[in-house]
Batch of 4 targets.
Target 1
Amino acid sequence: MTRLALVTGGMGGIGTAICRQLADAGYQVATTYSRTGRQEQWLADATAAGYAFHAFECNVADYASCSAMAAALREKLGEVDILVNNAGITRDATFRKLSQPDWDAVMGTNLDSLFNVSKQFVDSMSERGWGRVINISSINGQKGQFGQTNYSAAKAGMHGFTMALAQEVARKGVTVNTISPGYIATEMVMAVPVEIRERIVGQIPVGRLGKPEEVASLIVWLASEMAGFVTGANIAINGGQHTG
Ligand code: NDP
């Protein structure tokens, strides 16, 4: 039977590549969107490229919204086998200027979301004896980043969640892993002024930004049978920018 993958925030720069590669690998793919308006064009582009994705509205920072999304998804498609917690935001400011709402927003979307979304699907994976949870963190959760106390804390917290849940569900055939991308050439990063981008690239030993497709291929591998012995890991994909 075809396995079902859910990618939260799958209409973004990295999410789109993840959805497409999972579909190319033979999975049925569902995604979520939170910003009204963008989904029609994204789905139309995907259809034109030969993909048949399912999209569900969901605010990952809100538990009730995640429960409603899970109910709608189950009714339409059945049980989720592979969950990619990809939705995320930044609200950058030095700690001195960081506002309380911007702290909460980043915690809600990047960290609370792991509880809100995983809670909907992990029990069922355990009961069925197979599952994959893949959490998209960041290099900045590993090394900290100036101007990102909120984002660095939330992204580091994601891996704490991964390590604990991995231990709880390992015997049930469910793996839980974090991946920590460095700078990836998404719209957001390409919008950074060229001189700042060049400075960033100067810090990357491989000498270039990563590609969304490179992140996606790591996820396809983690979702596969061959990755069944990898759990509780935090896999860096950063061109050598941060090691250890
Ligand atoms: P994008 O901004 O392109 O996409 C983020 C996605 O998250 C969007 O689809 C957005 O959906 C969704 N999202 C945001 N807020 C919510 C919410 N409250 N509820 C549901 N969905 C939400 O980002 P990227 O593709 O660049 O990043 C994807 C992940 O990778 C993020 O977790 C990011 O932190 C991480 N990352 C990115 C790096 C990079 O270089 N780009 C580097 C390291 C990590 P919508 O538009 O519908 O709101």
Target 2
Amino acid sequence: MRPAAFLLRRPAWPNRKIAATTSLPWQNPVAAFTPLTCPHRLDTLPPMETSIHTLREALRHAQRVAVLTGAGVSAESGIPTFRGADGLWKNYQATDLATPEAFAKDPELVWEFYNWRRSLIGQKTCNPAHTALAQMEGVIPELALITQNVDGLHLMAGSRRVLELHGNIWRVRCTRCGREAMDRSPDMGKRPTCTACGGLLRPGVVWFGESLDPRILHQAVEAARRCQIMLVVGTSSVVQPAASLAFTARSGGAMLAEINLERTPNSELMDRVLLGKAGEILPRLVEGLS
Ligand code: BJW
Ligand code: ZN
């Protein structure tokens, strides 16, 4: 079911350019790694090949890696992103649908939007980007996969240490008693209610102006602080506090690489920017890693 065609206004979306931090001492032995037995002449390879090669060699020697993902990782599964030409916020106002105020004002409208998303996501499956990240977890001693996505596709692909910063679309929470449950029904109805107390249920996701689960955020910040390499994949890096995790990793001396179709406000912070599809680049990065 598509949401009512009432929201065909362009959102006035803030897109603050985040200032890059001053560069920090280069203390990370993984980031500084230079392959002495490199089988290729790096200077003869095109930039993308060089970046993939360098990153793969760094990953091969890394103990602790953090990956931050966003909607771009699920785009190749057919799930719309939020921003950009085909993004959800192009046609729907975030403030009408993804804030606690919007839910308080019109829960039926918000549930209509989420029922539409649930039915769409329920028909989709993981793509080569999700699979490559699950494979990467198998070869890196400590890999934390921090995702802003609520679609659950990283878990479906087999990733085990997944930190869902913005919740999960299949989770519901009672607005009266706080009880949480997983429910994979594609359509929850107009005003779903709690089986325990009859209170109104809401989607178990994090809306604008709401705090992230402090335990999950703490684990994500720790992973960013401790990692030797951070991969930032398929996110516009405009939503906080997720976007700041790259700064945290940088402050800890990590090597940073971004994989995206286009540059983002965080690109300046990166050691490597790989422009292209996550579903094409990530499998190549993982290829031959084990
Ligand atoms: C590809 C690709 C392919 C495409 N391959 N790439 C500090 C300063 C200013 C404001 C704030 C601040 N701190 C907090 C705020 C307020 C707010 C915020 O960040 N606002 C900014 C927009 C300015 N943050 C919050 O409110 C957060 N809460 C919080 O911080 O609490 C404390 C607090 C509150 C208030 C004030 C101060 C402190 C909560 C944020 C919750 C975000 N929720 C949503 C909805 C989730 C539920 C749902 O799904 O319905 O999360 S909004 C939406 O954006 C969703 C996403 O997870 C999130 C990020 O989007 P993402 O993943 O980056 O997607 P896109 O579409 O933006 O980008 C896709 C990218 O992929 C693009 O770059 C493409 O190029 C790329 N791409 N195809 C590779 N194939
Ligand atoms: Zn309840």
Target 3
Amino acid sequence: MTNEDIMNWLTRTADVLQEKRSYLTELDSAIGDADHGINMDRGFSAVREKFPAMTSQDIAAKLKTVGTTLVSTVGGASGPLYGTAYLRAGSVAAGKQELSSADVIAMLEAFLGGVIARGKAQVGEKTMIDALTPALTAAKQALSEGATLAEITSRAAAAAEEGAKATIPLVATKGRASYLGERSAGHQDPGATSSWLILRSLAEACEG
Ligand code: ADP
Ligand code: MG
Ligand code: MG
């Protein structure tokens, strides 16, 4: 994955989060406070405004810019959670001009690790973790089978989509949705859904 591919990933992410703004907000209106799409679009619109300044940055610096921008512009849980994820992903890329398949998987692992470190959620609590964890497992499996980076990331995105859908019956025990208790069951988690969209954008960028 080149610096240009990373830029492509971030552009696609900003585009899809803008496009799915209403959908993500609708999901959050069922079990939260109806702002997840607004939060994500606000954050990535601020990232988009930094694209010109980011052209000269290497991969690590770009990802760190995304992280700090999300932390400073997104009110709500998702800002610090995704902010930490991108900051940690950036650390993995330090000094690298290009990312190998193994590097991309290490980046995903750091991304997930950032969300866990910040939010202390475990699998099954109806959060972003429920999309990111199966995605990482699928990516590792694909790498071990000798898959190309395009296949690895597309299998990760497919697993994230399944993971997001599998949050529907879950009862939330972290974040705002946990205030609803049992009534949070029957709705897809907004954060798991945005995590899937972020990984789908990654897969599209790796397809070239
Ligand atoms: P807020 O809940 O503050 O309004 P958002 O609506 O932007 O923030 O984000 C809500 C999403 O954040 C949830 O759908 C869930 O996936 C995720 N989330 C909340 N708390 C945690 C946590 N502790 N760990 C991981 N993800 C979390
Ligand atoms: Mg919300
Ligand atoms: Mg909120």
Target 4
Amino acid sequence: MATFRHFRSFSKRHFYIVLTGFIILTTLLILKDWNVTKSTKPKVKTFDRYNGKATKSKLEVTSSTARKEAMRDSSEHQKHNHSTYNLVIVIKNSKANPSLHSKFETLLGSIYKMSSISLCFHVISDGDGETIAKSVIKRIAPKDTRVIIHNITVVTQKVQKEISQMQSFFTQSSKSYYGDPLFLLSIVLHRVIPIDKVIMLDVDLKFNDDIQLLFEIFNEFSEQNIIGIARENQPVYRHLFHQYRRKNPSTRVGAPPPHGLTGFNSGILLLNLHKMRQSDVYNSLIDSPKTLEGLTQKYLFKGHLGDQDFYTLISLENEKLFYVLPCSWNRQLCVWWRDHGYSEVFDQYFTCSQKINIYHGNCNSPIPVLHWEQQ
Ligand code: MN
């Protein structure tokens, strides 16, 4: 009986030991399997946790979990800074703009026809935009391409205060085409994405040269340059500053290249996010609506073209913040203003006699078939 009881208790203990061992083993196997599955997934990540308030070089985060996440994300991005080249593209409202899909295909196809570098795409998108971006990138880009999806609602919420201040100066109404916050996002991207340098591209572009050459232009920035941007190729700002120009006939404001302050087109932006974070001048312009209001009043300016209005306006008194990209890197094709009162001066703004590296089919202008597409 004693032996039997001993046997029974031994059996029970034995059973629990075996059960515990089984549970541990199963857990280990599941974890191992999970890791294997995870690492074989496509290199697509969804980032929506950045704390945008990066003051100076440190990320300002509140909870310890958030801090850990931000540090991990930041170190992830530091790696990208050194090993790959970062591109930012916004894809939103594809239902209202059915041509967005084919435009993005054209852009990507042209980039990869000539690219000699490995790229990391930061796609800022809504649900449909994410689907388009992933499918096109998967089909066209090489396997080592990285994709990071940023949810546009989450991103714009982080910089809502800054954006709504801007909206009052640089959009006609929140319901107009350029009224969407996405058209102002580039201005505060340094508070959203914790990496050092990015090139932000419109979707209506076609490359005709190696994108690495565009990244190399960052090296030509002077110490004060923080943003690289090309001139606007139409007399848009001659028009928008017409009141100021009438009162100041010898002004450079709104005058054509090469000596005028022609105004900018934001289809291609070289953003040195690190220098943008460091620049007190730049950040004070974002954070003090009074200064901006002062500029709009002084130059009698009412904008409607989003971020490029902001860059244009602040460049009038802060010319050195901008590196002016050659027209070859943003050859805009829209000619709307030629037929709307500016035919006599149009060519002074529109002419670009350099070999074209990027065509920009703005205002839905068709982009020519290039020599490499005919082969
Ligand atoms: Mn465009």
